Amino acid sequence: MNTENKKITKLHLRSLGLTDYLVKETVRGLPSEKEGSYNIYSISDVKNSIQKKLNNPRVKDTSREKLERVLDWLHEKYNVIEVDFLKKLTPEQRLDFLYKRNEELFEKEKQINQQTDELLRKARQMIAK
């Protein structure tokens, strides 16, 4: 998997099963870009950081299992079969289709992030009462 240009957020890492502490330790010192209210990290940087943590013999077994699971996911060691549905399109048509699809997914991600932020805000308000 070419991960040089692929990005991930802390929220993604949490959704993959890492604790807040493991997420914080994983991204500590990594360069990031700002996208709205989210810091975005290079997947290759995150993979390297996780690998360094796994090389540390002091990492607890439960943390090690979680980090290995995320690393496997980042290496795409899950059951996904790639099929090229675009092979009959010209390169220009492929790019156009993929660009539009990327924009759609980006907008959907923004909406989900906004919904998540709203749920977190409501949960914090309920806790504060």
Characterise the protein shown here.
With 129 residues, the protein is mainly α. 60% of the residues lie in helices and 9% in strands. The chain is built from five helices and three strands. The protein has helices spanning 10-15, 20-27, 43-54, 61-74, 91-128, and strands at residues 7-9, 32-35, 38-42. A three-stranded antiparallel β-sheet has the order 1-3-2. A hairpin with a 2-residue loop joins β2 and β3 (38-42). It is flat, with a radius of gyration of 18 Å. The termini are far apart. The model is unreliable at 78-83 (pLDDT under 50).
**Rg value:** 18 Å
Spatial gap, N to C terminus: 47 Å
**Fraction of residues in helix:** 55-70%
Q: Give me the side-by-side strand order of the main sheet.
A: 1-3-2
Query: Can you summarize the main beta sheet?
Result: 3 strands, antiparallel
Q: Which oligomeric state applies? A: single chain
Q: Spans of 5+ residues with little confidence (pLDDT < 50)?
A: 78-83
User: What value does the average pLDDT take?
Assistant: 86
Provide the structure class.
mainly alpha
Q: How large is the count of helical segments?
A: 5
Question: What is the strand and helix layout of this fold?
Answer:
Blueprint: E1 7-9, H1 10-15, H2 20-27, E2 32-35, E3 38-42, H3 43-54, H4 61-74, H5 91-128
Antiparallel strand pairs: 1-3, 2-3
Helix pairs in contact: 3-4
Keywords:
5 helices, 129 residues, 60% helix, mainly alpha
Provide a concise account of the structure shown.
With 129 residues, this protein is mainly alpha-helical. Helices cover 60% and strands 9% of the residues. Strands 1-3-2 form a three-stranded antiparallel beta sheet.
